[in-house]
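Q: Here's a chain of 297 amino acids. Please give me its 3D structure as tokens.
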Amino acid sequence: MKNITVTIFIILLVAVLGLYLISFQVRETESALVTTFGKPTRQITEPGWYFKWPAPIQQIYKFDSRMRVFEADVGETTTKGAVPIIVNTYVVWRIAEPLAFFNAVGTVKEAQSKLLSQISDTQNNVIGRHSFGEFVNSDPAKIRFEQIQDEMLSDLKQAIKGNYGIEIKTLGIRQLKVSEDVSKDVFERMRAERNRKTEATIAQGNAEATRIKADADSKKTELLAVAEARAKAIRGQGDAEAAQFYKLLEEDPDLAMFLRDVEALKKILQERSTVVLSADTEPFKLLKEMPALTPKK
């Protein structure tokens, strides 16, 4: 019985070792490359359990296919207007084609070295097509930062994937700096731009104030002219009535005084009022007797 157990154990051990020699597993986070006598013959990008010939006939090279973040060195480049800027760029990448990656670079360290060179070329190529004002500007509408990053990503993708088996997922500019001299020039331009906008706003306000004042003066002049014309008309009417009264006074003073008293009495008696006066008081004596009026010849 003991011999049977040992025999079964040995058989299982041999089976496990044999399975280990002729098969391998590719995990979700991996990709693999199979070489036969040192020559790449098969690449595997899907997870699963696969069979192979035992070494040294076939060798298995596994690569971590998860996303990696690589940050390039801080470098200086120039914009379209030859303004020097300092850029720090990062990329998110992964191994997409194990066969091309193995033939082109072989290791992650070498791949990062290639990436560093390509990122530098991309920075010089893309940033050189854009002016400094598209990176730094007092007017947010003129900044093209996102567009520039997209152009850099597209340029880097074209240069990398076909040659190195690498897929670039994301590219971004982590830092953007300028030298002290450039900073002074930028701030001077920004200050001049703000002053120009301030002066334009003040000029516009002054023009509006002048227009409002001129409009007010025009209305004032118009109103004064209307009021003056109305006053002249009232004065003319008063003068005409006064002239008529004076003429009547000259022709018949007694009649004129009588008419004046009648008019005064009418105004006093318009309201219900109680007035205690002598009956001989002008013009109430008209209520007592009619004056003797002699027509003038």
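Q: Can you summarize the key feature?
A: Residues 68-178 form a domain with the Tetrahydropterin Synthase; Chain A fold (CATH 3.30.479.30).
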